[in-house]
Amino acid sequence: MKTKLTRQAAFERLAEWTKTDSLLTHARAVELAMRAAAVRYGPGEEAAEAWGIAGLLHDADYEAWPEEHPARIVAWLETEGEPELAYAISAHYTQWGKEYKSDLDKALLACDELTGFVMACCYLRPDGITTLTPKSVGKKLKTERFAAGVDRHEVAEGMRLLGVEPAEHIQFLIDALRPHGEELGILGKG
Fold first, then answer.
1. In this structure, which long-range contacts are made by residues 33-40, counting pairs with CB atoms below 8 Å and at least 24 apart in sequence?
2. pTM (2 d.p.)
3. Position 189 in a domain
4. What is the pLDDT of residues 25-35, one digit of tens each?
5. 85 lies in which domain range?
6. Which end of the chain has fewer CB within 10 Å, C or N?
7. What is the pLDDT of residues 3-12, one digit of tens each?
């Protein structure tokens, strides 16, 4: 899968509509996860740019227009000639009732909420992501009060649709994020 949209143009759109550091960091983390997902779950390295852009932009309109999310970013991507990216973003929450047609659609769902959750786990640990394990993330997933804003149904449904075991997918996300720990602020305080 190729994209006509450049990462720079995508980032400019994101930065125009999103001002909070936490949401910009989440967008970057999901971009990194999706770049790795293109290789692991998708067509390969040639799709990494497009899949990364889907991750970068998936919540681009959320801060400015939460009631309309994701309609604005979907419409913009369609005008940019990126229907596959637009569709994947329109489907990144199961409650919207979209069909999951492609590996891109499934991977974005499987990476979005869980990436945010993995990062939340890192913030609590003195060593951040450097010593994070799937077991500790799985334990925290069972604690409803921890990162209560993360929808556990979405996490489970994403992994089910993608056809991956939880521990395997969690390890995949840890591995995708770990090299970028300093940039993402998830190295801990130790």
1. 33/111, 33/115, 33/173, 33/176, 33/177, 34/107, 34/108, 34/111, 35/176, 36/172, 36/175, 36/176, 37/107, 37/110, 37/111, 37/172, 37/176, 38/107, 40/172
2. 0.96
3. no
4. 999 999 999 99
5. 7-184
6. C
7. 899 999 999 9
